[in-house]
Amino acid sequence: MLTTSIKGRALDYSRVVGGRLFRGIVNVTIGEKDDVYVVLRDSYNAGIVKLEIGNAPDDELEILSFNDTSPGIFDSTWPACAVFYKGEIFVTDELNSEILVFTPEGKLLRKFGSKGDTTDKLDRPSGISFNTKGQILVSDTMNHRVQIFDIHGKHISSFGREGSNDGELLSPWGITTDDADNIFVSDHLNHRIQKFDNEGNFIFSFGNIGTGHQNLNHPSDVTVDPAGDIYVADWANNRIQIYGPDGYHIGGLKGSAYKLSKWQEQYVQGNPDVYKARRRVVSLEPEKFFALPTCVLFDGSKSRLLSVDSQRWRIQIYDKLENYSDPQFNI
């Protein structure tokens, strides 16, 4: 399905960006204009790649790798998530329990944080976001809480503790805020999304373990669009779930990448053995579906959803259409 029309919304599949350049992709963040920063992490490949992704299919361009600008910087790190804020890139490092801060060209400016469980420490931080006050929100995953810092890394406050009751967290992962500074957390091992106000007070939650239409299974990320709709990377269910502003389920996306990305097509065409092996498979249908999506990000400036399809090394992009009406046919 290329256009998903559900309950007054329409998400139209636009394109897929990816390929071997994206080996180990786990996260993505939006920079200025058409700049997109991709977080890569696997046993052989870790770092940040800066791209330009325009509006038209196949106009993506690799700009640089942070590994070229700062050689060796990711040799002993495990980058998880990134966020762009006022000309700087903030990256969580799970291995060292730190936050790394870079220029848009990949020069390391500073870092802060260290491993521990006291109020100013981190333990395998993952999701990262900013509120309208310029404060950094971090999913302090193994401490089962959310930490809030200022732009220089000074600890401000925290909320959450280990558990499964309202307001408690179990290995939180993705985190985001809306225009009112409400905080949304992917409560990964509780299989739910929790919403908090800007002071960390519980508002509501939705989701529970399962494979049904409304269920979640190890959600890895969450994002909110300007209309208040909530998108969840339903990791172990291999799909993107969509909920309304009050947490009611609207629908979902299973993936629509019916053809290869530009860079993956170049790789296949340039490798005869890969080309022949791909043509021998029984069906190419599974290629279009999500496989363990780890990140969702709504780009409000272009009204489009970027979904990181981690096991297929790519980003699937959907445009959110305004004033869409279903086609009418006279039978």
Overall helicity: under 10%
For the record, the count of structural domains works out to 1
User: What oligomeric state is this?
Assistant: single chain
The tally of helices reads 3
How many angstroms separate the termini? Answer: 22 Å
Residues in β-strands, percent: 35-45%
Describe this structure in words.
The protein is mainly beta. It has a single domain (3-320), classed as TolB, C-terminal domain (Neuraminidase, 6 Propeller), CATH 2.120.10. It is 6% helix and 43% strand. The protein has helices spanning 66-69, 262-269, 272-279, and strands spanning 3-6, 9-18, 25-30, 35-41, 46-52, 61-65, 79-85, 88-93, 98-102, 108-112, 125-130, 136-140, 145-149, 155-159, 172-177, 183-187, 192-196, 202-206, 221-224, 230-234, 239-243, 249-253, 293-299, 304-309, 314-320. Strands 1-2-25-24-23 form a five-stranded antiparallel beta sheet. A four-stranded antiparallel beta sheet has the order 3-4-5-6. Strands 7-8-9-10 form a four-stranded antiparallel beta sheet, with no helix packed on it. A hairpin with a 5-residue loop joins strand 13 and strand 14 (155-159). The chain is globular and about 60 Å long. The two termini are 22 Å apart.
